[in-house]
Specification:
- It is a single chain.
- By secondary structure, the protein is an alpha/beta fold.
- The chain has 2 domains: 6-123 and 355-360, 2-Layer Sandwich (Enolase-like, domain 1); 127-342, Enolase-like C-terminal domain (TIM Barrel).
- The chain contains 13 helices and 13 strands.
- α5 (148-161) links the parallel β4 (135-143) and β5 (166-170).
- α2 (82-92) packs antiparallel against α3 (100-121), α5 packs parallel to α6 (177-191) and α7 (207-217) packs parallel to α8 (234-243).
Length: 365
């Protein structure tokens, strides 16, 4: 057996220009994409890679947390002890962690450790975990409010032309509620009856507004209403879900299964959207299992190139979100074909940043 003792861990910050495409018009993510890349080396020569992409300027803080709190506890341990390492870091950081920066630092490492294990077994992660299916339907995300109603419709039609059967548009954080309702109405008219429309509020409303608007959206055959309120307003989530006939979903801003516990105890949300950057792949798998116990499905937040590994290995995977945020970065991208993403058969998670990205976009200062 290859010796998987961890001998070195390196972090690299990347600042990458956005691709020159009209379909990213209207995003509010800043002038550059910032990634934190974590590389794990083992005594036997197998290396694993994890990464974070957060939309917000916190990468230096996470890198500091890794250097001070995570890496010293992990060097010399066996990379195959993924669960033991996760639990040790969880307990070691509990007084200042349990969410936020500490859990994101843990997540980057966790993704890299699973990459090591997959490569050691010479299996993609979805087969290491127990393969269930070969492909998942993708929905076209990122119909940004910043591009206006016409821009959102244009991008949705672009997705439809590429074979997607569902799109996601944004509401809230705009001029007025009437504009939001009109944008949804126009989107349904433009797409016709056969494309599902998902609506993302991005935590922009209170429960009472979400209920009032959700009742109006129902007239336009909306598939789901996403993150209508801030993540800690569990009572608001339940009020909205009980008041509406359409699906109310959320979870991308919650950390670990513990943060999602109120949704499990009161299973009103039929679909959860956990984020692999908020607990790692270890935690994502546990969330999926608990959700399945309660009859809930999973449609994880973003990162289709990574989330496909989980979704291809579980029975309750539903949708994979594609926004086109990182397709240009990978040596071997994981493309959407006719609205579906196929699980790659490369060992580990199968991802590697293009060498020129690592060379030219590394933050030096």
């Amino acid at each position: 057996m290859t010796d998987t003792t961890i001998t070195a861990i390196r972090t690299t910050m990347l600042r990458v220009p956005w691709p020159q495409t009209p379909w990213l018009k209207g995003h509010a993510f800043g002038p550059m994409r910032e990634f934190l890349v974590l590389d794990v080396e083992t005594r036997g020569g197998i290396a694993g890679m994890g990464y974070l992409f957060l939309f917000r300027p916190a990468m230096r803080t996470i890198a500091c947390c890794l250097e001070e709190c995570v890496i010293p506890r992990v060097l010399g341990k066996d990379a195959s002890a993924v669960e033991a390492i996760w639990q040790d870091l969880w307990r070691a950081t509990v007084t200042y962690g349990r969410a936020g920066i500490a859990v994101m630092a843990m997540s980057a490492l966790d993704i890299a450790l699973w990459d090591v294990l997959g490569k050691r077994a010479n299996l993609p992660l979805h087969r290491l975990w127990g393969h269930y299916r070969g492909q998942l339907p993708a929905y076209g995300s990122g119909c940004f409010r910043g591009s206006g109603g016409d821009g959102m419709i244009a991008k949705a039609l672009h997705y439809k032309e590429r074979g997607y059967k569902a799109i996601k548009m944004q509401v809230a954080h705009t001029a007025d509620l009437a504009t939001d309702l009109d944008n949804v109405r126009r989107m349904r008219e433009a797409l016709g009856p056969d494309i599902d429309i998902m609506i993302d509020v991005n935590m922009g409303w209170t429960a009472d507004i979400a209920i009032a608007m959700g009742r109006k959206f129902q007239d336009h055959n909306v598939y789901w209403l996403e993150e209508p309120v801030v993540p800690d307003d569990f009572a608001g989530y339940l009020r909205i879900a009980e008041a509406l006939d359409l699906r109310v979903v959320g979870g991308e801003t919650h950390f670990t299964r513990f943060d999602l516990k109120p949704f499990f105890e009161n299973p009103r949300l039929p679909i959860l959207q956990p984020d692999p950057m908020r607990g790692g792949l270890t935690e994502l798998r546990k969330i999926a299992t608990v959700a399945d116990t309660w009859g809930m499905t999973i449609a994880p937040h973003l990162f289709p190139e990574l989330n496909i590994q989980l979704l291809a290995s579980i029975p309750n995977g539903l949708w994979i979100e594609d926004m086109g945020l990182a397709e240009d970065l990978w040596v071997d991208p994981v493309p959407v074909a006719n609205g579906f993403i196929a699980a790659p058969e490369r060992p580990g998670h199968g991802l590697a940043f293009r060498p020129e990205i690592l060379r030219d976009c590394a933050v030096k200062d």
